Amino acid sequence: MSQQVIAPQVLPPTSAPSGWKSWLSLENRFVPPVFITLILLVGHLSFGILESYPKTLLAIAVSVAAELVLGRIFLGKWPHLASAYITGISVGILVRSPAYWPFALCSLISITSKYVLRVKGRHIWNPSNFGVSAILFLAGDVAASLSIQWGNFLAPMLVIWGLGAAIIWRLRRFHITGTYVVSFIAFAFLRAWMTGSPWQSEVSPITGPEYQLFIFFMITDPKTTVRSGTGQCIVAFSVALVEMLLRLNQVIYAPFYALFLVGPAALLIEMWIQSRRQKVITLAA
Q: Which domain holds residue 81?
């Protein structure tokens, strides 16, 4: 009696999404740059938020060039340029100066911080937040931050909020933005009560274009946020709290400085906790 040998079934390998489906996947790193470009176009065509096209292009070019050079030097490979593009375009939108060099310097500082200011192989500052905060603090006499509002036109603001929300919803980070926005509004009413200012004037900054980049790109940056969802919400709340304290002390660029202080501190605390847990596990083994 012969025995029949049944060949094992070989399943076809799972293929990555191709064509237009890859552009809709969560992993596609080109989606955020496309959306931030749309934010720039909507904001500039509606209200002229850019200082100038050449200055913005300079910021992008320096950011991309610095990423290529430093990535090759420190990592030994050519890095993906999506992050550098987002950094450059953020600098182009946020920085205001009659000179060109603050745009170039801000982009250079931003990208350099990714490779130089690292702890356990991880950069702890959001690049554009670090660069913008540094240039505003060190060169405040020649550089300022975007501060115009959207005016009374609701449509452009809704478009930008919709685009930004789509990005972070796809990245499963909407809870960070939501926590910050709710906290900011709550603290705005508290500031109004403490100072006697109209509540509208305290809430209105969050409708400005700089805040759209701040809440959708800076505080939600996956590389510089803590890992747990609860921790991310606590950090977003803490950023809003520190911002309120800075605003009460008449600090102009309060949101940037608040994230500059809170974000890295939260990452360092998380790293310390993880290190302690690892030591306990090692000793118990």
A: 27-277
CA distance 273 to 276: 5
Number of structural domains (the chain) is 1
Q: How far is it, in rounded angstroms, from Cα 5 to Cα 12?
A: 21
Is 5 inside a domain boundary?
no
Tokens 């685009």 map to which residue?
163
- Name the residue type at position 283: L
At 96, give phi and psi (nearest 5°): -125, 125
- Which alpha helices (DSSP H) does the chain contain, by range? 20-23, 31-47, 53-75, 82-94, 101-116, 127-138, 154-170, 174-195, 199-203, 209-213, 229-248, 254-284
User: Residue for token digits 């009560």?
Assistant: 193
Average pLDDT score over the chain? 83
Q: What is the DSSP string of 146-176?
A: -----TT-HHHHHHHHHHHHHHHHHTT-HHH
Q: Determine, yes or no, domain membership for 205.
A: yes
What's the CA gap between 180 and 185, in Å, rounded? 9
- In angstroms, rounded to a whole number, what is the distance separating the alpha carbons of residues 151 and 207? 9
Per the domain annotation, does 6 fall within a domain? no
pLDDT tens per residue across span 25-41: 444 566 667 767 776 67
Q: In the 8-state DSSP scheme, what is residue 214?
A: I
